[in-house]
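batch job 7 of whatever, protein = Acyl-coenzyme A synthetase/AMP-(Fatty) acid ligase
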Amino acid sequence: MILDHDLDIAPGLGRRATVAEIADLIDDFASRLWAARVRPGQRVVVYKSDAFDITLLACAAARIGAVPVLLSPKLDGATVAELVRRTDEPFLVTDQTKLEHELPAEVFDLADKVLLTKGSWPGAVELAGLAGAKRVAPVTMPPEHPTLITHTSGTTGTPKLAVHTGRTLQARYRPQAAVVRPLLPGRETIAMHVSFVHSRLITALAISLFRGFPILVLADSDPAHVGDLFAQLKPGILEAHPNSFMEWEELARDPRRPLANVKLFSSTFDAIHPRTVQTMLNASERTAPVFGQLYGQSEIGPAVVRSFSRRRGLDADGRCVGMPFPGFTDIRVVSRDGNPPSATNPGFIEVKSDGRIVTYLGEQERYDRQVNDGWWRMGDVGYRTKWGCVHLLDREVDVIEGFGSTLAAEDTLFARLEELAEVVIIPGPDGRAVPVVCTKDDVPLDLDAWKAAAATLPPMAAPVQWKLGELPQTATTKIKRIELAGLLAAGGTR
């Protein structure tokens, strides 16, 4: 395993370690948690500065039968305090930086005990001070018992806490492993830039570890930094968020050819723009590279899958997110108004899968409202073609009536304007569609080129230009559209 950063819990480990050394580190910290009085079934909230040790601490908690609750370092302190309250006096693993700059003092009243991975704080226990704790035997919990709690993206408000079990995580692992096996018959180095608090990282690591793949774990997605690493290590698999791939488009022009050895590009979390897909595939020098797209959700896991090859041009329909995993998942589209779902009248997308979470912690009624006879409502609208392919058109809450698919319009603009780094179409205060655009290197938008690119799209207000880093984002780098719309309505400009 290769890291692009040092671990707060083990700064002396360095950035290259064997799997056995990482496993020993997990065993070590499981024993330290036990020495801090963490016991099977108890919840351990991990909210610390961004690093891969977030995931390793989750493994350590699970090793002694505790239930890790992973909260993104990007969450603000008030939101974290509310989520800690919902977990009912958990142990809180954090660090001095978060206590100084993010967390309110009330977390000490909300948590059973506060444990620190780095630094010191009055009333908190330093995990470094528990070094040398007696090693304890692992605790195996029943497969139906909660084994991991993650949070939803929070694009529509305070994140919900999604409860996973051993059984539901295993159900997510199986179809992904089955899809990857024929694509990658040999050993490949995999590079991952995935949120350390997301359940996707658990299955991605499992697939890689069971196959014996060398693993590069990235905390920093900056293209210059990533280009240096990829040029040296030549990964054969890339796993990242859609927005990370967009950010890495410039690597396709890097003379060191950092993407030349990539056989499989893999993206979950959200639909990805066709321009980005083709840019990645064209940068690979492998015989038949594949871009695999998994459409799913924190609550349900991967629901449908689609692959892209170089044979598909920029006009390939990026709104087609794929087909269900045969024997693992099923999908249907339910009418919103009694008329058959179609491209012009999208319906509610619903999924059935054994990988579905078992509840929202503390919000059972909210969870029950999304389940109908085993079908989980995704919160997206779309339709299915006669061949069964699922087309994702919009989030339910983002629909602009009379406009059509905002996601499809964004795809079109990306394909026609090379200088775009991001474009998000949201409803303005008067209900009219407003495009918020970000350009590469923040150059001023060419308004004449914009008008030409948008000429065939439904009418929109004049574009509003922001810097990419100033857009509100989730832990998986999705844009918080509702929050952005609120900022614009309040007169926010950049």
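notes: The longest helix spans residues 166-183.
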